[in-house]
Design a protein that fits this description.
With 279 residues, the chain is mainly alpha-helical. Helices cover 48% and strands 6% of the residues. Strands 3-4-5 form a three-stranded antiparallel β-sheet, with no helix packed on it. A two-stranded antiparallel ribbon has the order 1-2. Helix 1 packs antiparallel against helix 2, helix 1 packs parallel to helix 3 and helix 3 packs across helix 5.
Amino acid sequence: MTVEYSSQGKSQRRPFIRFESRETDVLTPRPKNPLIERCLKQLVKRGLFGRPYVKDFLYDLKRRNCRPNTLRSYFTTLTVFLSYLKERGRTYLETITRDDLSGFIEHEQDRGMQPKTVSTRLRLLYAFVSYLVDREVVHPDLLKRKLRVKVPEALPRAIDPEDVQQFLAVIEKPRDRALVMLMLRCGLRVEEVARLKLAALDLRRSQAFVHQGKGAKDRVVYLSDDDYEALVRYLRVRPASRIKEVFLVDKGRCRGKAISVRGIQKRLEHYARQARLKV
């Protein structure tokens, strides 16, 4: 590695550590996480630089108990940013400037990204820049007067009651009706439904315990009468299984396993088409 100094004047010069292009892992070794290791392999496959820093940053997020989806969001943002830097001829993270950050914003806007998406990616990117500043990889001036993307404040869009009835009318399978009712009546997110355990159900009290939901927070939700009936109807026909999750795949090579987030999404898309509703 080589040591360089910023161009802030002799009195303010501070060393930056630069890794050579081979980018060997020189940071503290740790037990490998499969998700993070897959992400790092994608960096290598795409020929992107900065792998040691990205690796340490993702493991730092993991240590802070960030969820897999959060890790994926950070990695996606970093991949897009590093690809942008590569297109501009950058070869080291130590050389990034404020112009690179503002250019990245314009690049994403030119790609047709929504303001909310660009704002989110910028927020995640600044978290990575802050990590680099803490380790004296980039100059702290990058964090001064942070760039912002104005996001229009959109009002929540309510679902038309007629659309709800039209959607429910096409769902006859007990499993699918039960999981849809949990989202519709109890406000569970798709991932929360997929991860819901049998032990989290308290049918005697008509409630369910959501463990580590959005924001890694626990909460209790109460079942409405129709939600309770749909859930009980499904549990009566649910195959006996050692799988702890409530909802299981009922056919195909994954039969008997817990249904995935994408599996639920596909079912929702299927019923939306049947009901002739826009997804």
